[in-house]
Amino acid sequence: METSSLEALTALETLLSPDEIMIRDTARKFVADRVLPGIAVHFEMQTFPDEIIPQLGEMGWLGAHIHGYGCAGVNAVAYGLLLQELEYGDSGLRSFVSVQGSLAMYAIYRFGSEEQKKRWLPRMAAAQTIGCFGLTEPDSGSDPASLRASARTVSDGFLLNGAKTWITNAPIADLAVVWAKLDGDKPEDIRGFLVERGTPGFETAAIKMKMSMRASHTGEIVLSDCLVPEENLLAQSKGLGAPLACLNQARLGIAWGAVGAAKACFHSTIEYSKSRIQFGVPIASKQLVQDQLVDMASELVKADLMNLHFSRLRDQGRLTHYQVSMAKKNSVGQALRIARMARAIHGANGISLEYPPIRHMLNLESVYTYEGTNEIHSLIIGRALTGLDAF
Ligand code: TGC
Ligand code: FAD
Predict the structure, then answer these.
(1) Which of 21, 237, 253, 372 could form a disulfide with 83 if both were Cys (CB 3.0 to 4.6 A apart)?
(2) Is the C-beta atom of 382 inside 6 A of ligand 1?
(3) Fold of 131-234
(4) What class has domain 5-125?
């Protein structure tokens, strides 16, 4: 009987260039060889595979969508395909690459001086400097306009005070992009600052006891009279629009990435349901199981096509931030549904790290919340559709 793989069903390759396919396949092999064999143990032990960080730099995957300054300058589709393959491995790995490239490096690329770009971007692309992006605070999550971190102009620079929490890579970062209000308390006063590890008054601490994103460094940043030199201000960043512009970059990558996590769950479910015998036949021969497989496959095809279309628009400079919200919300919401269905079809084995669904399902709970929660993206799209602010 003729059967079809998910890839054959989507036929995405018919819409990709040879370069895009090459990047995807290279990342796929890397994940199969270097990530999948050990990732479940990392998740269980709550460690990140730090040994692959230099390799991510050697492959040219850090800030891969940035042009110049030692970065690869690939298009939005190739970047998305790369992130999808990485998240097929684990959301923690894609998070590492997103935060380094789409948030920390992009903030410098977009809002930094020529000197700052030349100083930091080549090192960050090569994984010699690890960055993080500090926007969220204990009392300021979905509403970043309310952030309280402050910067005060002093004779030799800026004095930073405040706290950031739930910051990916903070515990290992050499350089933190910190968003704080400069000499005022209004959203328009928000500016980006580069805070180097070792600066007195800059401390980080790891957040433990996570049941999601266990293979990822997550932490807090505390700033206590932290003196940042004048040359470390991202001078072009003014107001809340600056960090939100960085989020536009990362959110599209997350849309692609979440589909990778869901594909890993789907592939495992196809294999498992064909080999698991109950009532004398494979459970895949049951209509209720097939209906779920079809549901999963259809959503994966739709998500790939939406992400591809929106990424082509980005490459043409025509993508809006509410389209980005739609892609993020759709991909992550469907990925989480698919991971939960996959977990259930694996039965009791579905709760074991021997199989990928439970790990992806738990990770996707974070992805559902970060970079704008599922609800916040509804409100962004709703405002675009109606012109009415429901925040
Ligand atoms: P609002 O009045 O809508 O906007 C304020 C100003 O910003 C402009 N703007 C944008 N600019 C660029 N891109 C966007 N997406 C933008 N959205 C808005 C807007 O035009 C305005 O500019 P101006 O010049 O007129 O002042 O602001 P609001 O206060 O009503 O709130 C907007 C809202 C809720 C959409 C926004 O605050 C939001 O997106 N909240 C969610 C917060 C969030 O996503 N945090 C993420 C933290 S980083 C993270 O999670 C990293 S996880 C990484 C990983 O591990 O992978
Ligand atoms: P809240 O904003 O308190 O939201 C709680 C609930 O209320 C949510 O369900 C939300 O949708 C709902 N809600 C809020 N406002 C409304 C409204 N107006 N209408 C309806 N419902 C609403 N942040 C960074 O800055 N940098 C990072 O690198 C980073 N990495 C992260 C890594 C992980 C693993 C996690 C879990 C988070 C990370 N974050 C990071 C933080 C993340 O961006 C925030 O958690 C997110 O923005 C939501 O904020 P909150 O957790 O404070 O939730």
Answers:
(1) 253
(2) no
(3) Butyryl-CoA Dehydrogenase, subunit A; domain 2 (2.40.110)
(4) mainly alpha
Whether 247 is in the pocket of ligand 1, judged by its Cβ within 6 Å, is yes
Q: Are 190 and 242 in contact (CB under 8 A)?
A: yes
**Class of 241-386 in CATH:** mainly alpha
Q: Report CA-CA distances (Å) from 192 to 124, 135, 347.
A: 17, 9, 48
Amino acid in position 64: A
Q: Give every CB contact of residue 271 below 8 A, 6+ residues apart in sequence.
A: none
Name the residue ranges covered by the structural domains of the chain.
5-125, 131-234, 241-386
144: Cβ below 6 Å to ligand 1?
yes
- pLDDT tens sequence for the chain (391 residues): 788 899 999 999 999 999 999 999 999 999 999 999 999 999 999 999 999 999 999 999 999 999 999 999 999 999 999 999 999 999 999 999 999 999 999 999 999 999 999 999 999 999 999 999 999 999 999 999 999 999 999 999 999 999 999 999 999 999 999 999 999 999 999 999 999 999 999 999 999 999 999 999 999 999 999 999 999 999 999 999 999 999 999 999 999 999 999 999 999 999 999 999 999 999 999 999 999 999 999 999 999 999 999 999 999 999 999 999 999 999 999 999 999 999 999 999 999 999 999 999 999 999 999 999 999 999 999 999 999 999 9
Between the CA of 244 and the centroid of ligand 1 the distance, in Å, is 4
Q: Identify the nearest ligand to the CA of 134 by its number.
A: 2
Nearest ligand, CA of residue 97?
A: 1
